[in-house]
Amino acid sequence: MVFQGSELITLVGLGGWLLGSGLGAALGRSRGGRHPLLIRLLLLGVGALLPASVAGARALRQLTDATPGASLALPTQLLGAALILLPSALLAGALFRLAARAWIEPDRSLARAYGIESIGALLGGSASTGLVLAGMGNLALASLTALLAVGAAALPGPGQRRWLRGLTVLASVALALVLAGSGPLDRALTRMDHPALLASRDTPYGRVTVDQRGEQVVVFLDGALSFESQSVDAEAFVHPAALQVETPRRVLLLGGVGQGVLPPLLQHRPERVDLVEPDLALVDLLRRHLPDAERWALDDPAVRLHIDDPRRFLAVPGRYDLILVAQPEPSTAAASRTLTAEFFASCAEHLAPGGVLAFQLAGAENLWTPTLAWRNAGIRHALTASLDDVLVLPGATNTWLASRAPLERSPGPLTRRLVARAIQAELVSEPWLAYQLSNDRLAGVEALLVSTPAPANRDDRPSSSSLTLLLWLGRFDPRLAMVDPAPLLQRAQALTPGGLGAAGLLLLGLAGLARRRGPSRRFALAVLAGLLGMLLESSLLMRFQIEQGVLPGHLGLLLGAFMGGLTVGAIGIDAALVRLDPGEEPPPWLRWSVAGASMGICALTLAAPLVATGLLQSGVLLLLAGAATAAIFGLATRIGLPDQAGVAGSLYAADLLGGCAGVLLATTLLLPLLGLTATGVTALLVAAAVLALLR
């Protein structure tokens, strides 16, 4: 919500959580004592922090006096994310260190403790996904999780006190009341930022909020303004596209149920409109609260509603005279996936002869910054790979039209169709169409897009999302909006092979130095385990988002699959090492097997585009990545280490801090600038460094 739906905050937030957990595991390390009372107090702290964190996220805009739908200042966003995540993460890291020290015995290893923790993460990830799909909101989910933490603090055993039992009873009652009243409480918290709140709901795709002032209905998706009922934006999008088609009998509308697209579209009297929306919860919520014209349009006999992913729907045969892509700005990979060369190729296959594809992108009335030109030029180059003629109608919002056949550039045929179809519109008229097709900016925009040598926007490297993010950052510092991305992107492409080679040599050199010293080797392996795991996890999660577009709803399950792999790898390596004496070096066959398996999963991740990347396939790859990560960490716990309990916190912290570095490297450099393939190659280089340490 704070970052308005960007997947990058998912990964950056994950990195922040790993950082906080690593610090919690490393700080306050002691050599003796099991501290059972402290464990119970920390569990109570988690129980208090979780619902408070959700409430803080809801209230952040109100506390900073932000305008609903507008972006918070960047420092405020980062500070807010830190305040929401870090306190709970610090407690979680400290809890693992204390619980592992209390559990480890001569016949109980740190690797097995790591695996048991991962079982909990697997259960939590699976449960959170199922509960979100069942309709549970974030506040209720946080309250339920807090109840589990308080319940754990109340279990009988060492460290239990009479006063503590009373405290846990009070905390449980308070959390049960919050859980029971989570619906009204959530609405009250949401109303702090939306005084005119009509309805709000968490869905697998994000958070939908509907406001109403008088007769105007306003829809926010993940805190960003999506649609308002009295706008003329929808007709400025629909009519120029539909008038390009002589007879738009069959229309495919991808999205748009919350953007007012259907009423102007139905004025062209299509025989059939296939409306594809992936989020059933969004449709149900809007159907109850949209203005009458929108609801009547949804119930029109010509409209067929399909709850499906747009890209998956395009795998089904069918021909359309008009395809309207009503998706938001490509500030996220979920939005950018409907503006790639692969997506446009699928659309082209479904266009009937003379059919038209249309979508909208933000532009500028007069001055296009270099970043905006590069973003839009990359999308145009992706478009022209499949469709021969492209026409961009300039303005603050550009309407893009594309077809295999020549598009009408004279207003005459369009105005005749406008009159013949008796179109009733507030904005679109004969003079408006004449101006759109004859003003001098039309040729200027065309020349700029053709001459800008931006790389085509593709699935493997959706540059439109990173460039849109740069445009977004320009709101906070106008100098960023004027940055010319050409030198940066061209230099990144040119230096990628050499840079990856140099990084590989550096990693191998450091691995060689660390191998000579037992403690350095041990901690280097723990860091590389976390680094490798997060590079693979970030790459696979972003690939899933690009292919499937539903990361928020399945994030818990996918993270749970990775944690399940950690469980399998940790317990498996522990079983393989159980007969070793304390401090004895793992046998060569085991070290080579783990290193080879790590390189193998990197190769599979690189080959992911060649196979289906649905939920099952992505889950299997994440499980294998987790198993390799845990196996490396398990070996690190047994290299020259007779006393595992004494270094449990520091080794766990090294693993988490390596993971934090992996997430930040992937989100700030590899994924935005170099793409998925380069991220996979980097993971392969890290696996090679692991091999150098284990050989």
Strand content: 5-15%
What is the tally of beta strands?
11
Give the class from helix and strand content and strand pairing: alpha/beta
How would a textbook summarize the main sheet? 7 strands, mixed
Averaging pLDDT over every residue, what do you get?
A: 83
How many distinct helices? 27
Give me the side-by-side strand order of the main sheet: 7-6-5-8-9-11-10
The figure for the number of domains is 2
What does the overall shape look like?
globular
- N- to C-terminal distance: 46 Å
CATH class of the largest domain: Mainly Alpha
| CATH architecture annotation name of the largest domain | Up-down Bundle
Low-confidence stretches: none
The radius of gyration over CA amounts to 27 Å
Helix content: 55-70%
Which fold name corresponds to the CATH topology of the largest domain? Growth Hormone, Chain: A
How is this structure best described in words?
- By secondary structure, this protein is α/β, with parallel strands linked by helices.
- The protein has two domains: 7-184 and 486-694, Up-down Bundle (Growth Hormone, Chain: A), CATH 1.20.1250; 225-473, Rossmann fold, CATH 3.40.50.150.
- The chain is 62% helix and 11% strand.
- The strands form two sheets. It has a seven-stranded mixed β-sheet with strand order 7-6-5-8-9-11-10, with helices on both faces. It has a four-stranded antiparallel β-sheet with strand order 1-2-3-4, with helices on both faces.
- The protein is globular and about 90 Å long.
